[in-house]
Structures are given as C-alpha cells and as structure tokens.
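Quick question: what would this complex look like in 3D?
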Amino acid sequence: MDIVVLVKQVPDTESLVQIAGDGASIKKDDIKWVMNPYDELAVEEALRIKEAKGGSVTIVSVGPQKTQETIRTALAMGADKGIHINDPLAEGSDSLATAKILAAAVKAIPFHLIIAGQRAVDEDNYQVGAAVAELLGIPHVSLVAKAEILDGKIRCQRAVEGGTVVVEATLPALFTTQRGLNEPRYASLPGIMKAKKKPLEAKTLADLGLDPAAVGAAHRKVVVKALRLPPERKAVRMIQAETPQAIAAELVRILHEEAKLI
Amino acid sequence: MAQGVIAITEQRDGKFRKVSYEVVSAGRRLADGLSCPLTAVIIGSGVEALAAEIKKHGPDKIVVLDDPGLADYRTDAYTNVVADLVKSLSPAVLIAGASAQGKDLCARLAARLDAGLAMDCTAVSVQNGAITCTRPMFGGKIFADVQIQGAPQIIAVRPNVMSIIEIARESAVEKPAVRLGEVKTEVVEKVMDSGGKVELTEAEVIVSGGRGTGGNFKPIEDLAAAMDGAVGASRSAVDEGWRKHADQVGQTGKVVSPALYIACGISGAIQHLAGMSTAKVIVAINKDPEAPVFSKADFGVVGDIFQILPEVTEAVKKIRS
Ligand SMILES: Cc1cc2nc3c(=O)[nH]c(=O)nc-3n(C[C@H](O)[C@H](O)[C@H](O)COP(=O)(O)OP(=O)(O)OC[C@H]3O[C@@H](n4cnc5c(N)ncnc54)[C@H](O)[C@@H]3O)c2cc1C
Ligand SMILES: Nc1ncnc2c1ncn2[C@@H]1O[C@H](COP(=O)(O)O)[C@@H](O)[C@H]1O
C-alpha cells in the first residue's frame, strides 16, 4: 500500500500570535513551528498501515524553507521520503490553491491512499483534504477515528455529532484524521539519524507544471480584509460568600436574574 | 449573472438539525441585505414534509432534493446533487452550517465549483452589496474579516451562533429530478448515542470537567441534567479515559458556542480556551485562585467542585421547579 500524507507546518498551539503591520497577516518571527497535531495522527496512521501491509509512506508539504524541519520530523517517525513544494509564488495561497498545488504533486506519484489532517490549527480551514480528493477525482471520508483497509476499499469510522457513522470508500481514497485514531509516536534518536539520509525532493510550481496565476497571495478567492483580536471579555466577577450554599445561591441568582440563562 | 442566496439545511433521520434554522435565518438576512431571493434546500429521502417546517424561517422558495440514495449523508452523492442545483440556479451565495456534514460538503463543493469558501464563520454582514464574513483562526486567538471573490461565495456558519428568526412566508416548494451521479462511498452502519442527549455543538448550556474531577463526573452530569445541558471535558479528562473523545472541547476537540459554559476543575490551558472562547457567558469553578481560566471567565468561583456543584444543582432545580 503506497500512502501519501499531507503535512503542514503550523505555529505551536502555545504560541502568541500577533498581527503584522499590514493588518492582514501574522508576525512570522519568534514563533515555534511544529507539525500540525492532526497531521501527526495522519503520519502515525500511515506508518501503522505500512507496518501491517507493506508499501511506502511519502510526505508532501507546501511551505517555505523551514517546512523542511517538519518533513524531517515525519521522516524520523518512519516515513520513507518527502516532497517539499517550496516556491515564493505559492506563498499566501488560500485553501483551494494549496489543494491545487498538493493535487498536482500527488498526481505525479503512485498512491493507493492519502491521509490528511481534518484541519490545520493555524487558519482552521477544514478544507484542503476534501479539495485534494475532489481535484484528484477520488472519494474522501473526513473526521475518521478508525480506519481499516479491506479488499479494494477502506472502512472508516467517521465521528459526527452524537455518534459514529461507518463509511466505506473504494480505493484509491483520502481520509482526514480525528483524535482517537491513534497516539502518534515520537521520533527516536536512531530515527532522527536515519531521516537525515532519506530522500527529500524540493519542487517549484514550474516543476509541477502549475500556472502561478492560479495560486499565491495575489490570487486568493478568500481575501483577508483585516485581522483583529477577539473582543475582550469584561474582567471576571468573582463570587464570594461564606459557605458553598451561599456561593451557589449567588451564582444561580446572577445566572437567572442578570444573565437570564436559567 | 449569479444571483440569489441558497441555504443548505441539514436533516438526520427525517428531522432537521438545529443548525438548519440558523442557516436559513442567516440566509434570510443575507438575501435581504443583497435584495435578492432566498432558496432553502432540503436533501434526503422522503423529506418533503420538512418543507412546512422550514417555511417559518422565511425562504422565498424551497427546493427538495429527494432520492433514496440521499437518505444518509454521503459526500459524493450530496456534492453531485448540490453542484447540479448550483448550475441551474447560479446563486451568488451558498450558505450552510459548519457541522461535521456541512464542513465536509462545503469543502468538497468549493473544489468542484472552483469557488471560495469561508469556513466556520461567527458573523456575516452585508454592506453596499459586499459580504464580509468573520472567522476565528488560530484557535480563536485572531479573528479574520474575509471577503470572497467570484461566485458562488460559499459560507459555512458555526453552529449555535446565528440567531434564529421566524417570519413565515408562502414559499413555493419545488421537487426537481435528481441525478446521484458517480458515488464511491457507502454508509454501512450508524452508531448513535441513545437517549435524547443534547449534542455538545447544539447545547445552550455545557458543563465541562477536567483533571480536577479526579474522574468523578457525577456532580458535572447532575448539573448538566438539571440545566438540560451537555457534558464536555478537557483533553486531560479524555486522555485519562474518564470521558470519550467526542466530549473533548478545544483545539484538538470540538469548538462550541453555548450560551453558558461552566468549566469545572479545568485550568484553562490555551488549547482548551480555543474550543469555548465564543461561549456567550463563561463560568469557572476552580480551587486555585491563580488558575488561568479565570482570566477568560465572566464569573468565577474559587472552591472545590465537589462542594460547590451539588449546591448549584440544588439551587438550579429550585428555580426551575
Ligand atoms: C497540541 C495540543 C493540543 C491540545 N488540545 C487540547 C484540547 O483540544 N482540549 C483541551 O482541553 N486541552 C488540550 N490540550 C491540553 C492542554 O494543554 C492542557 O493540558 C489541558 O487542557 C489541561 O486539562 P485540565 O485543565 O483538565 O487539567 P489541569 O491543567 O491539570 O488542571 C486541573 C485544574 O483543576 C483544578 N482542581 C483540582 N481539583 C479541584 C477541585 N476539587 N475543585 C476545583 N478545582 C480543582 C486545579 O486547580 C487545576 O487548575 C492540548 C495540548 C496540546 C499540546
Ligand atoms: N501547505 C500544506 N501542505 C501540506 N498539507 C497541507 C497544507 N495545508 C493543508 N494541508 C493538509 O490539509 C489538512 C487540512 O488543512 P486546512 O484545510 O488548511 O485546515 C492539514 O491537516 C494537512 O493535512
């Protein structure tokens, strides 16, 4: 089974995210960059399938130079090779344009299965996986908490509100990850050493035969007009009283009379 | 030229999900802002009767896409029929809920139609014919105001955020022939929670527990039950195996927007706040006065949840009886 994993480098979830001077992008310095947590699940799942069935795991990522570090991390976890689309013309692409680049890169390699994260925790777009599948003309299943490879198809437990739906899709297919799927491994020291020698190809849009007019910041369909900080909440009002009963009574009174929530 | 707004509703087993009313209401406001008609779309099998219910929220027209093959949500079948409808109506805007189904459908549809999609929006406004959507990014640390180029503009709105309006209209109901097209997915089983529990993303009230529960969620469940609410959890509580993954709120869990969120024995890590910061009112109960959760709460109680919560539950029951 040849598996492609789509991996994105994102700011660490602890990062302080600040708005840049242009008011429409974020400050990129002073941020610790990590693998998108949902993509860690995707890499882990690919490795487990490969360990059970044989085959290969290829990491594909679009991003600037430092994205290499995240691809190396995936290689250190056990993936076989990486493809890094690194082109300034791709910078600032929106989800659909990113999907176009990824689909062009994936089309050039043999695969049976693609795994992506359900969302990247930077822009929280929840789009790229489904869009890549559509552009490649293959089925996809999103929010997968368990995946099983059957003969010529994949059976996925898809997490929906209030339960789980079991969906089968014919291969080749793409699925996106949901927490609960697995616990991603850490890269071991020997893994990190080995990763340094694994192939990591760098590609440009031209290598993929892509027209730069379809991608990049200047051609976004979803145009960011302004970034701003979320509205501030008023300072917290602490509820104090002598006994738990008195505290509870006051809290419930406020929620009932003032906030009108009970 | 592209014109009109279409609102995609969501039903499951013949019943509308709440987000449907929110989407049609938001669609109505958009259509009014753009001075154009609103079409509500119902998709399923044997769902024509639902048209009467959605009329209350003001669509000018209702389209029912009905076929046995549409009984359960399947990305490819739903994308095919909605894409056909878009081709025949060429709407300026398509609005849907950012639920598990809506996110999936909109993402696939946007690629099919080569259209821009603003996902998981918490506000939508129209000024001089231009639509601006607000969407939280980076786990709610930043809000982005975005505009979509081209048509249709696809907008997915966060469940539980858009207010529901009721303005009955005499809307015409159409039931065009549907073509399922190529379908490569099959729903083979559905395992749904039993017993009419309120779903997290639809709940008006969420009572959440963290590591501070020590694994005892009884007082949390009791308070949630007294308020007809749902129970949520921090990732620590899920990792400990005390609650299932579906209950997790946060950056790697569910993003919720209830009217009231009560965080109990939760420290307030940034990844947890990412999942609940758009709640209208936040109450935190924690025995540590320095817990970061207090900095994001509207009301705070420093104390032991095992002493406070049972009293709160009693007080709520008294008021509600
Ligand atoms: C990539 C990434 C993604 C993550 N995603 C999520 C996510 O989606 N959701 C999430 O929740 N976390 C997430 N986390 C984890 C997050 O960083 C915290 O570790 C987690 O939220 C802590 O859970 P907690 O508040 O229950 O536990 P703790 O931080 O251990 O806090 C327990 C709190 O309970 C209080 N307490 C103890 N006993 C009592 C008592 N009897 N009465 C009252 N208070 C009491 C303590 O004072 C303390 O404040 C993520 C982390 C990472 C790195
Ligand atoms: N630049 C990228 N390079 C590789 N994969 C990506 C990129 N952007 C998004 N993805 C994949 O698509 C998923 C969803 O991302 P998004 O739609 O941006 O929330 C991620 O978890 C990745 O698997």
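Answer marked as accepted. The pocket of adenosine monophosphate (ligand 2) is lined by residues A 6-8, 36, 38-39, 42, 61-63, 95, 98, 102, 116-117, 119-120, 123, 125-129 (CB under 6 Å).
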